[in-house]
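Bumping my old thread because nobody answered last time. Still need a sequence for this structure:
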């Protein structure tokens, strides 16, 4: 998580939000950000059920390797739609629904086509990106 988040934080003067349900993860992230002199990250202890950010307050969102853990993907997508500005972008990265040495168990994984369909059914323009042998991404834009 550090590398991708830090790349985005370094590429903008805007605030970058790091949202995680586990405070220890955010503390570790903050320690690494301090070492890299990155000061534009706002750390938010939160799940993806009710994100503690204002409506239409975010230009871009990245959800990486966690959507398979939420209780309701539809509800989470509605929260993402709520916080993203019109035309805002979402990049969702997940494990492919195949057996691999690392990652969540196969029964928790969501196939790329199912994820794309779920996002499109939420009235979000989306396209599938094949990242590598283990991961896929869905790139989406709010209407």
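Sorry it took so long. Here it is:
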């Amino acid at each position: 998580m550090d590398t991708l988040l830090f790349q985005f934080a370094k590429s903008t003067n805007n605030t970058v939000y790091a949202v995680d349900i586990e405070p220890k993860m955010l503390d570790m992230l903050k320690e690494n950000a301090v070492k890299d002199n990155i000061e534009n990250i706002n750390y938010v202890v939160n799940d993806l059920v009710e994100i503690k950010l204002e409506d239409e307050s975010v230009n871009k969102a990245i959800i990486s390797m966690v959507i398979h853990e939420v209780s309701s993907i539809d509800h989470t997508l509605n929260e993402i739609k709520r916080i993203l500005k019109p035309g805002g972008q979402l990049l969702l990265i997940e494990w492919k629904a195949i057996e691999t040495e690392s990652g969540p168990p196969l029964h928790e994984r969501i196939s790329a086509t199912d994820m794309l369909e779920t996002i499109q059914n939420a009235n979000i323009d989306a396209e599938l990106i094949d990242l590598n042998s283990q991961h896929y991404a869905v790139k989406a834009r709010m209407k």
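The longest strand covers residues 84-95. Let me know if any region looks off to you.
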